[in-house]
Automatic annotation (TrEMBL):
This is 4-hydroxy-tetrahydrodipicolinate synthase. Keywords: Amino-acid biosynthesis, Cytoplasm, Diaminopimelate biosynthesis, Lyase, Lysine biosynthesis, Schiff base. Signal peptide: none annotated. Belongs to the DapA family. Its EC number is 4.3.3.7. InterPro entries: Aldolase_TIM, DapA, DapA-like, Schiff_base-form_aldolases_AS, Schiff_base-form_aldolases_CS. GO terms for cellular component: cytosol.
Length: 293
């Protein structure tokens, strides 16, 4: 079972929007050295919705090659069409990833039965560990706890990233799901409490800029050390909030640029961080002890 601080990795880009492969390699090493427990590539923070199919697959292959088995690699392979999600998941398996992360189909607003059949079809088509991803604030559809529990019985469906930010819901899921089904936080602001309640880790945006602290916080929370986990999390609380001052990954990519880890590139329809927000994100970084260039 994959546990700990799992970074939802941003995708570095040049000013013209082309993927910056050199910066991508630097980011991977930055996370390995800082203790990040797993790399999640081509997810929401990685701007997967703006990548072509070829770019998506190339990014996944390159991540596996760069990581070289040192930590698990999880590939985002969700899509709003089931056939496309199957194709992406098969490509990720062929690339050698450890697991796939499948966001609920967005925009089309399937029923709960549709969500169940969608994920079951992918799991039946591709024999690789698959983590469900519920983020209703972005997809417009909510994978209900009862549906998640139902899917937990499907072979190859091994976990759930729950990003609704509702701790009562998280506690219910932890009680209702089988013990070998991993429930992860997908909401940095509540991740510490979720792990103290039994979640297996955090698929994290904050880890992009504060990987060592996120690793330490997750390790303490998973060990049940409440005082240590909450003390570390207190240093990160402004990042948990202010990295979402505009749509993710806009603030995160600006922060990584200020840290000297990537250039300014971001793809439309996302735009660079509004200058009015710069000082707030910079203050959050400095509060966490992060040095800016």
């Amino acid at each position: 079972m994959i546990t700990g601080s799992l970074v939802a990795l941003a995708t570095p880009m040049h000013a013209d929007g082309a993927i910056d492969w050199e910066a991508f390699a630097r980011l991977i090493e930055f996370h390995i050295e800082a203790g990040t427990d797993g790399i999640v590539v081509a997810g929401t923070t990685g701007e997967a919705s703006t990548l072509s199919f070829a770019e998506h697959c190339a990014l996944v292959r390159e991540a596996v090659a760069l990581v070289r088995g040192r930590v698990p690699v999880i590939a985002g392979t969700g899509a709003n069409a089931t056939a496309e999600a199957v194709e992406l998941t098969q490509a990720a398996k062929d690339a050698g990833v450890d697991a796939c992360l499948l966001v609920s189909p967005y925009y089309v607003k399937p029923t709960q039965e549709g969500l169940y059949r969608h994920h079951r079809a992918i799991a039946e088509a591709v024999a690789i560990p698959q983590i469900l991803y519920n983020v209703p604030g972005r997809t417009g559809v909510d994978l209900k706890p009862d549906t998640a529990v139902r899917l937990a019985g499907v072979p190859h469906v091994v976990g759930l990233k729950e990003a609704a930010g509702d701790l009562d819901r998280m506690r219910h899921l932890l009680q209702a799901c089988p013990s070998d089904f991993a429930v992860y936080s997908g909401d940095d602001a509540t991740a510490c409490e979720a792990m103290l309640a039994g979640a297996k880790g955090d698929i994290s945006v904050t880890a992009n800029v504060a990987p060592k602290l996120m690793h330490q916080m997750c390790r303490a929370a998973l060990a049940g050390d409440e005082s240590a986990a909450r003390a570390i999390d207190a240093r990160l609380e402004r990042l948990h909030r202010d990295l979402f001052i505009e749509s993710n990954p806009i603030p995160t990519k600006w922060a990584l640029m200020r840290m000297g880890l990537m250039g300014p590139g971001i793809r439309l329809p996302l735009t660079p961080l509004d200058p009015a927000c710069h000082s707030r994100v910079a203050d959050a970084l400095e509060y966490a002890g992060i040095t800016l260039c």
